[in-house]
Amino acid sequence: MDKQYNKIILITAPSGSGKTSIVKHLMKKFPSLAFSVSATTRKPRDDEKDGRDYYFISENDFKEKIHNKEFLEWEMVYEGKYYGTLKSDIERIWKENKVPVLDIDVQGAIHVQQQYPVNTISIFVQAPSVEELKRRLKFRGSETDESLQARVNKSTYEMTFKKHFENIIVNQNFKEACTDAEKIVGNFLNN
Ligand code: 5GP
Fold it and tell me: What residue owns the CA closest to ligand 1's atom 11?
């Protein structure tokens, strides 16, 4: 059987921890990885593209997909904003003999681990501190005061879940965090 058969890589973290940049780095480094594109009801940011970063869909369409059991997992990650992993996207990636990488919130990652307890690794990316987290979210410029505070509150809560994940990376220094992530993923792909 192929070494990469039905593997899953979960990268999870509180918002603002720099997780998405680490995911992008891993995708460049390992050609056998493919990004699992989630569906969401939030609006695209300026640099985001439909079908590449997310499938940006309406709340009605999202609810229809829930009804049709099209999601491996889904969450209302922020008040009124839904995010979900499509079974069809994971299957598409497996059919290409690649390994899906899920950039997913903490609860979603726990749900996927429960459904796929073998052949799955999880990496929890931790921001160095709440102050640093606030600074990064402000720097991104995509948040209002209210949504920034909501993300900080959620992050603080999500930190309490870190014990559920087998690999923890502290993103103090981006280059070092990428090297740590590379080692973990490299080992997983070779076994
Ligand atoms: P953002 O709005 O910053 O792109 O993402 C907000 C949070 O939702 C991040 O923690 C991101 O990893 C998470 N997220 C993205 N896609 C999914 C998904 O399909 N399912 C779940 N549960 N969380 C997701």
Answer: 104
Nearest atom in ligand 1 to the alpha carbon of residue 77 is 8
37-63 pLDDT per residue, tens: 999 999 999 999 999 999 999 999 999
Number of domains observed in the structure of the chain: 1
**Predicted local distance difference test score (pLDDT) of residue 2:** 66
Question: What separation in Å is there between the alpha carbon of 151 and the centre of ligand 1?
Answer: 12
Q: Ligand 1 within 6 A of 38 CB?
A: yes
Q: What is the value of pTM for the model shown? A: 0.91
Distance in Å, CA 1 to ligand 1 centroid:
32
User: What's the gap between Cα 146 and its chain centre?
Assistant: 23
Residue 169 inside a domain? The answer is yes
Which pLDDT score is estimated for 4?
67
CB of 16 closer than 6 angstroms to any ligand 1 atom: no
Edge-first strand listing for the sheet containing 54-56: 54-56, 38-40, 81-86, 71-78
Mean residue pLDDT across the chain: 92
Go through 116-135 and write b for each residue having 16 or more CB atoms within 10 A of its CB, e for each that does not: eeeebbbbbbbbeeeeebbe
Task: Let me know if residue 3 belongs to a domain.
Answer: no
